Amino acid sequence: MWHPQILAGEGACPPEDVGGLGGYEEFLEAWNDPNHPEHEAMRQWGESQHYRDFDINFRNNLLKTCLKIKKVKQ
Asked: What is the C-alpha separation between 65 and 44, in angstroms, rounded?
């Protein structure tokens, strides 16, 4: 069965209430740098917001699964 696929991508959407563009830049700095003083706190907060790095395989599997469920419900 054919289904849409994501071919390329990078990054993820900002978590809710991250503080605009500047807040997102600060968040990413701390998220990606294990030596950043706020790294662990940002990881915990980001994970509580369901933030994760962009994973093309995860997203394609999610898309495929959602489309299968929709087809079954029709």
From this structure: 28
